[in-house]
Specification:
The chain is of the alpha/beta class. It has 3 domains: about 5-295, Thiamin diphosphate (ThDP)-binding fold, Pyr/PP domains (Rossmann fold, 3-Layer(aba) Sandwich), CATH 3.40.50; about 325-480, Rossmann fold, CATH 3.40.50; about 505-630, Rossmann fold (3-Layer(aba) Sandwich). About 40% of the residues lie in helices and about 15% in strands. It is built from 25 helices and 17 strands. The strands form 3 sheets. Strands 7-6-8-9-11-10-15 form a 7-stranded mixed β-sheet, sandwiched between helices. Helix 4 packs across helix 12. It starts with 8 loop residues before the first helix and ends in a 7-residue tail after the last helix. About 45% of the residues are buried.
Length: about 650
């Protein structure tokens, strides 16, 4: 059956194993073609095609709930749940999301985008289901869920949140099914005839009935029942431990099944069918190959994990090869500085490539740490390093650093430890949508005592700020955007001097003052130049620092022009403009007018950075129009 005839998971159930295999190949071709045009997560989605088909073949979505961890492997799920005709819009403005969204489909049981949430969410769904049944709660909006599954990758299992969920699942003893999608090769030897044979035995009805009956019989023996039962359980664990890597889960009170071949649809269907009616928490360990079915993705799964448009025949990127990203500039600069200071340590949370730290790891492997998807640990780990006199730099995406918020306050800033936070992907990120937009970091950082927060307008300032932060005897953060550097041609040598809390005047005028921070500085300057041609002379300040503000300069310009517009790529609430407004309010300057440009009180949807910046009026045209409108009402005093 061709994909255009698959309108819902029910259509998948009518297919034979041979037809499912053909469908899997067709799905791979569609995913490769669309990602080559739109960009997106390729390798992870190619690795889960058969797994997704098997899940929908055995279980009954949407009554049975499938919770996808992160959700960057859910493209096949979307294609077979009624979104094939819209798939060409994936990750596009007003199109379908690259991640599961509750309001997009009834088959998306839980919205995701960040790692390691699936087990906790799935367990919550199960508890709600059982409470509704137990107390006969009337809830007409929702149908009572059936089976509930969490599909989680081996990388996501490095997060403490995943183990918190597993620990609670083992305690509650509910019928949660966890599918561990393992695309690492460390235990691939277990995938073979013996493992498959053992798996069939351990999940089959005969074994499960024998296990329960034996336990009941042994426990019924007076005085000897409990000790003998424990001995039998230990013997079973020892036998399974000879072949299977699941003793950790068994000790948590979770039945372990696997590992099994994640590309063998027949075996997957048989295994899921065997455990479908389990009444206890069960983890199914599935081995998949990331990037399967596309040669370039199989060879370089990291490169094709999250990728922009590319040429299918060669695997070559279609983006500007000459463009240098802020991530690359940061990585090179940090590596250069590490050569001069042996105290410098680099820390990543499973984003070595994404944060530009490959060059650092290659040159200084003993001073580089990838702690896995464990942002809170990364922050406190850095705090411990800093407490002993070394200089750790923690490179994490803005949206992921949110997970380390308490640790930033309690473990770093409270103790005034010199940890440097390199905040990548700050501001509007683009097509990955609301779960990945880095528009909150100014708001959640600037109110923390002892923390210096800065943002460069270009590559020169990024390096200068990094040097400044490493010399500063206290915690500091540098936020910079996704994409190529402004005015960038790489790190262009030494020489730029920056003092903490000092802004830069780029253009002087007396009608209006534009105070911009980070990557909106150049658009603000462009808008001011356009205004000048119309007789409006605007000052442009590159703030450089969110905290501390250059209060002296801000006060001087506010008193001079009486009109202030602040521009930032962050939420207006609690952001940079709010900091300027709070300060000027405390100074009680008469007749001053202030306007803040930034992100309003809403989540930023998916779309290109250009489209979204235009939507929120923080590109050059938007700033220009805001100035014109703002200037139409004269201030009381010039």
């Amino acid at each position: 059956m061709p994909i255009e005839n698959i309108k819902s998971p029910a259509d998948v159930k009518s297919l034979s194993p041979a037809e499912l295999k053909d469908l899997a190949e067709e799905l791979r071709e569609i995913i490769i073609e669309r990602v080559s045009i739109n960009g997106g997560h390729l390798a992870s989605n190619l690795g889960t095609v058969e797994l997704t088909l098997a899940l929908h073949y055995v279980f009954n979505s949407p009554v049975d709930k499938i919770v996808w961890d992160v959700g960057h492997q859910s493209y096949t799920h979307k294609l077979i749940t009624g979104r094939y005709e819209k798939f060409e819009t994936i990750r596009k403005y007003k199109g379908i999301s690259g991640f599961p969204k509750i309001d997009e489909s009834v088959h998306d049981a839980f919205g995701t985008g960040h790692s390691s949430t699936s087990i906790s969410a799935a367990l919550g769904i199960i508890e709600a289901r059982d409470l509704i049944k137990k107390f006969k709660i009337q809830n007409s909006k929702f149908k009572i869920p059936g089976k509930v599954l969490a599909v989680i990758g081996d990388g996501a299992m490095t997060s403490g949140l995943a183990f918190e969920g597993l620990n609670h699942a083992g305690q509650l003893k509910k019928d949660l099914i966890v599918v561990l999608n393992d695309n690492e090769m460390s235990i691939s030897k277990n995938v073979g005839a013996l493992a498959a044979y053992l798996n069939r035995i351990l999940t089959g009805d005969l074994y499960q009935r024998f296990k329960k009956q034996t336990r009941a019989f042994l426990e019924g023996i007076p005085k000897l029942g409990t000790p003998v039962t424990k001995i039998a359980q230990k013997a079973e664990e020892t036998l399974k431990g000879l072949f299977l890597p699941g003793i950790l889960f068994e000790e948590l009170g979770i039945n372990y099944v696997g590992p099994i071949d994640g590309h063998d649809i027949k075996l997957l269907i048989e295994t899921f069918g065997n455990i479908k009616n389990s009444t206890e928490p069960t983890l199914v360990h599935v081995i998949t190959k990331k990037g399967k079915g596309y040669e370039f993705s199989e060879k370089n799964p990291c490169i094709f994990h999250g990728v922009g448009p590319f040429e299918i025949e060669t695997g070559s990127s279609l983006s500007d090869a000459a463009a240098v990203s802020y991530s690359a500039i940061f990585g090179r600069a940090l590596t250069e500085l590490a050569a001069e200071d042996e105290r410098l340590i680099a820390i990543s949370a499973a984003m070595r490539e994404g944060t530009g730290l490959e060059c650092f790891e290659k040159r200084f492997p003993d001073r580089f740490y990838d702690v896995g998807i464990a942002e809170p640990h990364a922050v406190t780990f850095a705090a411990g390093i800093a407490a002993q006199g070394l200089r750790p730099v923690v490179a994490i995406y803005s949206t992921f650093l949110q997970r380390g918020y308490d640790e930033i306050i309690h473990d770093v800033c409270l103790q005034k430890l010199p940890v440097v936070f390199a905040i990548d992907r700050a501001g509007i990120v683009g097509e990955d949508g609301p779960t990945h937009q880095g528009v909150f970091d100014i708001s959640y950082l600037r109110h923390i005592p002892n923390l210096t927060v800065m943002a460069p307008k270009d590559d020169l300032e990024l390096k200068a700020m990094l040097e400044l932060a490493l010399k500063h005897n206290g915690p500091s953060a540098i936020r910079y955007p996704r994409g190529k550097v402004s005015q960038g041609s790489g790190v262009r040598g030494q020489g730029l001097e920056i003092d903490i809390g000092k802004a830069e005047i780029l253009k002087e005028g007396f009608d209006l003052t534009l105070i911009a921070i980070g990557n909106v500085v150049y658009p603000a300057l462009g808008a001011a130049e356009r205004l000048e041609k119309e007789g409006i002379k605007a000052s442009v300040i590159n703030a450089r620092f969110i905290k501390p503000l250059d209060k002296e300069l801000i006060l001087k310009m506010a008193s001079k022009t009486k009109r202030i517009i602040t521009i930032e790529e962050n939420m207006i609430a609690g952001g940079f403009g709010s900091a300027v407004l709070e300060y000027l309010n405390s100074m009680d300057i008469p007749d001053i007018k202030i306007k803040i440009l930034g992100i309003p009180d809403e989540f930023v949807e998916q779309g290109s950075q250009a489209i979204l910046r235009k939507k929120y009026g923080i590109d050059e045209e938007g700033i220009y129009q805001a100035c014109k409108a703002f200037f139409s009402t004269p201030a009381t005093v010039r």
